[in-house]
Amino acid sequence: METMTSLSRRGILKMAAGALVVRFALGQSTSDTSKSLDATEVDSFIAIHADGSVTIYTSKVDVGTGLATAFRQTAAEELGIPVERFTVIEGDTALTPDHGGTGGSSGIPRGAADIRRAAATARQALLDLGAKQLNQPASELTIAGGEVTHSGGQRVTVASLVAGKRLGVKVNANAPLKNPSTYTVVGKPIARADVPAKCTAKHPWLQDLTLPGMLHGRVVRSPAVGAKLLSVDENSIRALPGVRVIRIESFLGVVAADEWAAVRAAKEIKATWSDSQVLPGSGELSHWVRQAPVDRDQALANRGDVNGALSSAAKQLSATYYWPFQSHASLGPSCAVADVKESGTTIWSAAQNPYGLRANLAKVFGIPLDKMRVIYRDGSGSYGTNGADDAAADALMLSRAVGQPVRVQWMRQDEHGWDPKGPAQLHELRGGLDANGNISAWETQMWIPDGPQGSRALLGPESAAMSQTHGQGAGLMTLNLDPPYPVANLRVVSHHLKDTPLRLSNLRAPGKIANIFAVESFADELAAAAGMDPVAFRLRGLSDPRAVEVLKRATAMMDWQTRPSPNPRAAEGDVLVGRGMAYMRYKQAENYVALGITVAVNKATGKIAVRRVVCAHDCGLVVNPDGLRNQVEGNIMQTLSRTLHEEVTFDKARVTSVDWASYPLLTFPEVPALQVALIDRPEQPSYGAGEASSAPVAAALANAIFDATGIRLRAVPFTAERVKAAFAKA
Amino acid sequence: MLRLADNDAMPQYKFRVNGGPVTVDSWDPEQPLLYILRNTLALHGAKFGCGLGQCGACTVLVDGKAVRSCTTPVKQVTGRSVTTLEGLGTPEKPSALQSAFIAEQAAQCGYCTNGMIMSASAVLSQTPRPTLEQVKQGLAGNLCRCGTHTRILSAVMRAAKA
User: Between chains, do A331 and B140 touch, taking CB under 8 Å as contact?
Assistant: First the structure.
């Protein structure tokens, strides 16, 4: 692949489709082949080629979610061109318009909406071109199968209509959209184009990218957070072939033409570092989170008189819940290739926000934006900001130092040890029930490690003592802290700590999984205190018919027996069985999800076996039911893993959970039966589904364990040791 | 015969890959097979996941058995027969197992897919008609972070029935 940074236009076109793409310039010189990046222009998003194929350009990237397929369907539907003719170019700052990065389940509601508007505008332009060509009024024309057809039977292909031209129109926010009731492509389970290649080793992974003259780089991270590099003994790796050592302040890297030489060099090089003990340790971290200095309090809800209502309540409850630091734990460690040249810098990365990455790298490294190009290529799933940005900075530092392209792939301990983490969260809840078992008062308080806003500090530049901001954004952490049930007296406060022991970033469904773990566990505790069936208790407070429907669907799927928890007939030999339910509306404004779990808990071993998960999911319009189902299933399995097993551990110096033994994931023998019901509402807006079904998993599991055992687990992960300890205390 | 060893001074290793003989050189006899496959032979199916034999992303078959290429020194495969994901089939002509993965859309990011298919291939060659439980046990050493487990299981069961 050729490296370009000066945006050679002919080169861009060659790269755009892997072959020469013929571009059309209506009313312009055909030699002007520049690719528009202006997000107000239709041509920035969509190019219709002479052979009838169509390219979609987008800054949103498909990190294994099926987003690109949804984009193809959305554009195909509006344009009336068969979906198999569409390809997608993602996240290339030289080719794709910047309509935002990928995250927060925004790919469908915002990304697809942008593409839909561009396609709908293009459709109008094509109808106008067809009207001229066929000499018929546009109102009598339709587009289907890639052809503009007059009601009288005359037809012309879209490809021939646009031949030699660019559409040259602005995206019209009011362009007429197809009526969802007429959809033929959106709503269908179109297969993903990348899956056959991924199953046959033909997929062009970032990790597989090779450039002429490319070296392999590895970075030696400090043995302790904040440690300074004191000395390096280059003789310690003299025996390894062709290794060069790059040291910039406390940044220590190695490059070699041979990857194994670079791997061994990074492992074997002798370096001495200063002592550093700046972390609080993870052992008693919940206490640290509760005691550490607070920077600001955020009042999220405050109505009625919570204290008064609590003191006059028939029953009062309080409980504390804890969620640990967790890692993105990408299966493949982060990777990047950088080619720094005098003429400009090119970065290949799997980062979810290529434009954001470019802006940050340009600022930190002092490179003008127009001299840097970031190109997305698929990497291992990231679920937010994993180490990808840092790996890109590492590759850039090394390539700049040696003047050759450098590929950096982190080692396992780098990813586990140094990816920015999803923050720990501590929740204290108080609630009151009136004499009829209604919730009369509710208070949620959350404490959460936090820090300044702005771009996240990159590891390599930090080691090299380069100037940069130290933002600690982790996503929308404070949504879903209040109950979805009516409460007259409600107080919700989020206490943001001044500092965080580990760097933060967004990790799938930021904050919401822990928030709903607390809120929906506590709702269950109130239901038990009221002596009510947990579903009946919830339904009593829900009036939104979409909320009621998901809850009823999920309970029907698992043959829910109406009775209070705990289960009076839980014992099955050595194990105790039970069921639990959790409901939520994601971000309080998006998807409705109800999720039920049946569980078996072994009292002797403490082992939790999740037997079955059912999920009823309403995200409005369903673009691709199979892609959606895949996402929902993945969210559930990943969050079971996070709930059962995952906690980043650290001592005073460093993260100590640095491999799959110390940071285990869910394994196949633990996989439960899984049943997902999708409720399609074509008349409703489509919410992104990349996160929502994650959010109720931990609460549903905690509620099921309570039903089985009478024991309430309020701290994640639900390890066998924790279960045994809880039994011992009960 | 594919010859990639042009430095006579460097130790050479002869084995078979996807049916054909290869001779590769490696300055380090302990160099894991994974790097030889990916960098010397440009076979990118096997992926680096952990380098510790813990995740299975690098799985290949050696004489029909699933092994972790990230912890298998190249010297150990001398004279043996290595099969990689490339050796099973192509997008145009996928193997039954690859077809089943495609039919079930059993991938999200797909980084673990190599290991899943190679490990499942070994499971099915040992146990052509496995129970679901046997497949779960057979894939116990393969990690998937996206949570595609149920589809992977469905794909393997589908292939077993094919």
Answer: no
Closest residue in B to A208 (Cα) is B44
Cα–Cα distance between A641 and A328 in angstroms, integer? 12
- Using 70 as the pLDDT threshold, list the residues of chain A that sit under it: 1-33, 164
A618 DSSP β-pair partners: A592, A679
Give the closest-approach CA distance of A244 to chain B in angstroms.
Answer: 17
At residue A201, the pLDDT reads 98
The predicted pLDDT at position B162 comes to 85
Please name the member of A194, A196, A659 whose beta carbon is closest to the beta carbon of B50: A659
Among A36, A41, A44, A45, which residue's Cα sits nearest to residue A78? A45
Residue A124 tokens read as 């109008």
Q: Which two tokens stand for residue A189?
A: 């389970």
The tokens describing A569, both together, are 């007939």
CA A402 to centroid of chain Cα atoms: 34
Q: Which amino acid is it at A65? A: T
Chain A residues touching B88 at Cβ < 8 A: 200
CA atoms within 13 A on the CB side of A11: 9
Q: Tell me the pLDDT tens digit for each residue of A151-189.
A: 999 999 999 999 868 999 999 999 999 999 999 999 999
Of B85, B135, B145, the CB nearest to A329: B145
CA–centroid distance for A229 within its chain: 34
First to last CA, chain B: 35
Report the chain A residue with the minimal C-alpha distance to residue B93.
A200
Which one, of A290, A255, A258, lies nearest residue A269 by Cα? A255
Buried b (16+ CB within 10 A) or exposed e, A670-707: bbbebbbbbbbbeeeebbbbbbbbbbbbbbbbbbbbbb
Per the rule left: phi > 0, alpha: psi between -120 and 50, beta: everything else, A115 is alpha
Q: What pLDDT is stored for residue A602 in this prediction?
A: 97
Q: Is A683 on the interface with B (CB under 8 A)?
A: no
Q: What was the pLDDT predicted at A18?
A: 33
Q: State the complex-level ipTM.
A: 0.96
Cα diameter, chain B: 51
Q: Which residues of A touch B150 (CB under 8 A)?
A: 633, 637, 671, 674
Nearest to B42, CA basis, from B62, B22, B27: B22
Question: Average pLDDT of B55-74?
Answer: 98
Residues 327-346 of chain A whose Cβ lies under 8 A from any Cβ of chain B: 329-333
What is the pLDDT at residue A312? 97
In this structure, the strands spanning A575-585 and A294-303 are unpaired
Contact assignment for A260 to B146 by CB distance below 8 Å: no
Whole-angstrom Cα distance, residue A351 to residue A59?
11
A675 touches B at CB < 8 Å:
no
Give pLDDT tens digits for B144-155.
999 999 999 999
Chain centre to alpha carbon of residue A50? 36
CA dist., res. A555 & res. A435, Å (int): 27
Residue in B102, B141, B142 closest to A199 by CB: B102
Q: Residue A207 is nearest to which of B47, B51, B151, comparing CB atoms?
A: B47
- Residue A502: strand, helix, or coil: coil
Per DSSP (E only), the strands in B42-103 are 59-62, 65-68, 81-83
User: Which among A380, A637, A666 is the nearest to B111, CB-wise?
Assistant: A380
Q: Nearest-5° angle of CA A415, CA A400, CA B26? A: 65
Mutating which of B40, B109, B142, B154 best tests the A interface, going by the most A Cβ atoms within 10 A? Answer: B109
Sign of the torsion angle spanned by Cα atoms A36, A41, A42, A44: positive
- Residue B110: alpha-carbon gap to chain centroid: 14
3-class state of residue A290 by DSSP: helix
Tell me the pTM: 0.95
What letter represents residue A191's amino acid?
Answer: A
What tokens appear for A385 in the block?
């900001």
